[in-house]
Specification:
Helices cover 61% and strands 10% of the residues. The chain contains 9 helices and 4 strands. The protein has helices at residues 2-6, 13-23, 26-36, 43-54, 72-85, 99-113, 120-134, 137-143, 156-167, and strands at 10-12, 64-66, 92-96, 147-151. The structure holds adenosine monophosphate. The site of adenosine monophosphate (AMP) has 16 residues, from helix 2 and helix 3.
């Protein structure tokens, strides 16, 4: 929805990784077991895919990055990529939702999409990794004055409208 309102591509590192797994590339095969366990794929693999994607023409006017950065070293890598592209980071969007709500959503998604990393064990691991490695990044972007936090529970179209209004 944000991609359509903002008219810039949605670049999801999870989607890039899943495409590599599906295509059976050597990197995809390497990443699959790590993803299925709910752990983070190595920084080098994700960075390589991301660099390749954002260098494409359709990303020239900007892009929505989803699922990246997820740890402190990826924050540095993103700064380097954006410096290279001479593109500033406009905003960091955080969606707030309680642990229980997230568990419910992922359980439902497992039924609908059948993602192989939506098992109860992998879900628990992903939330654990998020708390340890990713949540601390909010503070970094807060200090840079870029963090915008939204309520992530409620009607999807209302949440989307609030984000678009705020991002201008
Ligand atoms: P997502 O689609 O964002 O939920 O990501 C699914 C899985 O892909 C994660 O649990 C990780 O195993 C892997 N992944 C996605 N983005 C990253 C990233 N930035 N760094 C490391 N692993 C990632």
């Amino acid at each position: 929805m944000l991609r359509d309102s903002l008219r810039i591509p949605h670049v999801s590192t999870g989607d890039l990784l899943r495409a590599a797994v599906k295509a059976g590339t050597p990197l995809g095969l390497q990443a699959k077991a790590v993803m299925d366990a709910g752990n983070l794929v190595s920084d080098d693999i994700v960075l390589g895919m991301l660099e390749e994607r954002v260098a494409q023409d359709d990303a020239r006017a900007g892009f929505i990055l989803d699922g990246y950065p997820r740890n402190a070293s990826q924050v540095e890598a993103l700064d380097a990529i954006l410096g290279e592209l001479d593109t500033p980071l406009d905003a960091v969007v955080a969606l707030d939702a309680d642990h229980d709500v997230l568990m419910e959503r992922m359980k439902k998604r497992a039924e609908v999409e059948g993602r192989s990393d939506d098992t109860p064990e992998a879900i628990a691991k992903r939330l654990d990794v998020y708390a340890k490695e990713t949540a601390p990044l909010l503070d970094i972007y807060q200090k840079r004055g870029l963090l915008k936090t939204f309520n992530g529970v409620g009607a999807v179209d209302e949440i989307q409208a609030t984000i678009v209004a705020e991002l201008g």
